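Posting for a labmate who doesn't have an account.
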Amino acid sequence: MIAQLPYIKVIRSIEENQQHYKEEEYMIAFSLEAVWTDGEVFHQHEVLDMSFRPFSNQMGLIYLHTIKGLYCYTIKENPKMFIEAFKQLKSAL
């Protein structure tokens, strides 16, 4: 594994007529062979690009542009180093 970055999923549930939100934390990681998330594995040749868009002071969205489509993950950390490491790896492959 070369780098990893935590991302969150917000789980909504209704209990006793009240809506509840729970954040679950997962990791997105990559190596020379693939990029992993909680439910997906993308081989390096399937990932075309990675980008980031902030939507508040504390959160943003990291996008995986793949041959299977666009995948979006909510993050709380600045992904600049993670994305730069990924792009360096892609340029070297």
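Reply:
Got it, the structure tokens are right above this. The CA atoms of residues 62 and 81 lie 13 Å apart.
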